[in-house]
Write a structure and sequence with these properties.
- This protein is mainly α and 301 residues long.
- Helices cover 77% and strands 0% of the residues.
- It has helices at residues 2-32, 35-52, 54-57, 89-125, 127-142, 145-156, 160-169, 172-186, 190-197, 202-238, 249-258, 266-294, 296-300.
- The longest helix has 37 residues, at 89-125.
- It starts with a helix and ends with a helix.
């Protein structure tokens, strides 16, 4: 009898693994059919490669460049031209890619760590927990974010990590609201009731069943947040609140503005701006692709 039970348990485990594998393969199949999603994934991968391999692609721009080549338009020697001190704009853009991706990922991580637990607990338990959790979320949603980010950056410092933390602290409310909405719908499902009836601990229900099934819209929201984080970092750096010891796309634009060549030396502002646009669109397209691959209703449209 024990052997029969054991064999049945093994059979169920195999069935679960097959189901998970089929779901993953179905998602990959649906995602490959989404043109915008594939474009976004390709763009993110390319930018990740550039960011990781930045030391191999170009030298870190520092000090003064070739003074005889100041404000030169794109040439075979300087692909993106040079700035007012003769430094290569191409080198600056490459290293700026690394900074922008770093800020995006740190922001997303902070938004997940804060927003997901608040959304899960508020949606699952309701009552006072929901009132407090959503009350704090609504307060953050009504705050004047840009002035507060400027003040915090001026107070705690303008390091890249500080900027990423500041942006992350104001990026979690949307994650919390999305997570709560999904949790409210999922906790009414029959399999949640069944898990409660058999005595499954609540923390397992919340994190294994509710969070797992609520993950698709969370992933979509995270992709959007990363794009917004890149724009926010560029904006703060353009205002002079970036890290002066490193390069970001906003810092390049700020240098062009400070030296008064942002219009005359068109290449100085064009290439970092194109980098920002490509990265933001890539994250947004990736999020759209994930959403449509996981949502049958959207695929039918």
């Amino acid at each position: 009898m024990g052997q029969v039970v054991h064999q049945g348990s093994n059979t169920n485990n195999v069935a679960v693994k097959k189901k998970k594998g089929s779901n993953l393969s179905e998602f990959a199949k649906n995602f490959r059919r989404n043109l915008l999603g594939m474009i976004g994934l390709f763009g993110v991968i390319i930018l990740l490669v550039i960011g990781v391999l930045a030391p191999l692609i170009s030298e870190f721009p520092e000090g003064y460049g070739d003074m005889s080549m100041m404000l030169q338009p794109p040439t075979s020697q300087y692909w993106f031209g040079t700035d007012s001190v003769g430094l290569s704009i191409f080198d600056q853009v490459v290293w700026g890619t690394r900074v922008s991706l770093y800020v995006g990922f740190i922001t997303a991580l902070i938004a997940l760590v804060i927003g997901v637990p608040i959304g899960l607990l508020s949606g699952y338990y309701g009552g006072r927990i929901s009132t407090v959790g959503m009350g704090v979320t609504d307060i953050f949603l009504t705050l004047p974010i840009l002035p507060l980010m400027i003040i915090l950056a001026a107070v705690i410092g303008t390091g890249v990590s500080n900027i990423a933390v500041i942006i992350g602290l104001f990026s979690w409310p949307s994650i919390a609201r999305v997570t709560r909405a999904e949790t409210l719908a999922i906790k009414e499902k029959q399999y949640i009731e069944a898990a409660k009836c058999i005595g499954t601990p609540e923390y397992k229900i919340i994190f294994r069943h509710v969070l797992l099934n609520a993950s698709p819209p969370i992933l979509v929201n995270i992709a959007i947040i990363m794009g917004i984080a890149v724009i926010s970092e560029a904006g703060l750096s353009f205002l002079g609140l970036g890290d002066p010891t490193t390069w970001s796309w906003g810092t390049i634009l700020q240098n062009a503005q400070a030296t008064g060549v942002i219009i005359n030396a068109w290449w100085h502002s064009l290439f970092p701006s194109v980098g920002i646009i490509i990265l933001v669109l890539s994250f947004n397209f990736l999020g759209m692709g994930i959403n449509e691959a996981l949502n049958p209703k959207l695929r039918e449209k």
